[in-house]
Each structure stands twice: as structure tokens, then as C-alpha cells.
Amino acid sequence: MSGANTSSLLPSQAGEIERLQRLANRIRYSAMSMTHHSGMGHTGGDLSSSDILATLYLGGVLRVDPQHPGWPQRDRFIMSKGHCSAAFYSTLAFRGFFPTELLSTFMEPLSKLNGHPDRNKLPGVEANTGPLGHGLPIGVGCALAARMRNETWRVFVLVGDGELQEGSNWEAAMTAQHYGLDNLIVIVDRNRIQQGDFTENISRTASLGDRWSAFGFAVAEADGHNHAALVERFAGIPIEAGKPSCIIASTVKGKGVSFAENRPAWHHGVPTKEQLAAARVELGVEGEE
Hints:
The protein has 289 residues and is α/β, with parallel strands linked by helices. It contains 9 helices and 7 strands.
């Protein structure tokens, strides 16, 4: 569980938060099962982003229609950290964009579930991502298109904190503030670990909120594993009218699985059969498929 405090919520609200916690852990276990069977993947980032993805897609934040994935008025979501595709695919499947049975084909030859998302192969994928630093520029273009067409749909972009070392993100941020794109929401999965080491040992990203503010964004922080906090934060966007929003979600790499939490090796870690079984118990999904 994410550890969200539900004691101050109404019973109906508490029940919804508990539902999201269960679904997020289902996403976690599904992603780990996929990387285990394929022998490849990015388990740590899958686990850190699962609560964010569950809240967006399964908590009613995103306006999408799985039966009509090309619905013109849909919100757009771009998984810029596309290497964490197992969690993203699991979320889309649980939301109904395609059968969950397809998840077992992850990274198989000719599978629609590539290591990186491909919009030409799967409904619900808005942009081909994987090479880092590309998702936000695409998102800015989408948000600007909506503005030019006087449309009301929003654009959400999930980026990794290590990914922010790519300069293309900051070029896109300057464009977003120039046009006042308050229909653009950037979410930073702030798990503080990237490939190889902690972000602060590779390129310091302290005072990250100040950096986004300096680029003209309205900035807020949230516990990226607290569904109640995430729901409240997403309900308050845009954070400031006339400015693009940035939500810095504090997360833990490998969240929910003790042997993977906060360990750089699990950026690329692949669970063994025994580790997968242990994770299933820890995540509380023993009775679920």
C-alpha cells in the first residue's frame, strides 16, 4: 500500500482511495511479471510511477474513452519516460484500451507491446517515446494546437527526474511559458535515481521547483504515492491561470517492493521467480491475476 492517510476522508472517499491503492499495486505486480517473463525492462521506474498512472487513468482524472481512443475531445497523456512501458501498458489494459491478455506478450518478437510505446501499435498511446527528452516537446505542440483550435482538452506529460538532464525539455518549457499554456501539466516522477546512480551524484537536481518556476511554470509538490494527495492536486489544475503547471511528485524508485526500493540496480532490475513471488505477497495481490 502507498501509506495514504484516509482517516480524515468521508467513507466514500476513503473507499475510492483504497481502490486506487489496490489498483496501483496490481499495476506494480503486472509490470514485474512482464519484466520477469521478458527478461528485460525498467522495474524501478515502473514501480515509482504506478500510483501516478493509477490516479490519472483509473481515478477519473483523464478524460478518455477506451472504446473510442481517438475521441477528438480526449485529454492527451504522454509517457515521456517511455522506458517504463510495462507500468504504462498495464494501466492502459486495466482501463480497457486493450485486453489484459496482451500483456503476456511484452517484448516478444512482433508484439504490439514494444519496450518503448508505439502509437501505431496500441490504442491509448499518444506518442512514440523512449529516447528521453522528446515527450515534453511533443506535449507542448499538442497543448499549443488545442489553444489554436479553441479546444478544452488538456495535455499531461510524465517525465523522469533524470530525464530533465536533456536540454530539449527546457527549450519546450520556454515555449510553454511564452504561450501561457495552462492546459499543459508536467508531472515529474521525482524518484532521485536514474540509470547507474542517484541523480544527485550524476547531475544535481536540487531546488527543482525553483528551476521550473524560473521557466515560467506554476509549481506544486505532492507525495507521488499518496492517492488522496494526488487526486486533490490534479483537481486543482491549472495551478495558476495563464501558466503551464508542473507537479513534482516525490516518489521512491522500486516503491512497494522492499528489495527494490531506493536501489539504483533496480533501474534495470529483472525479478527472479522467487523475487516475483515475494513481491506478490508484499503488494497484496495474492488472490488476483
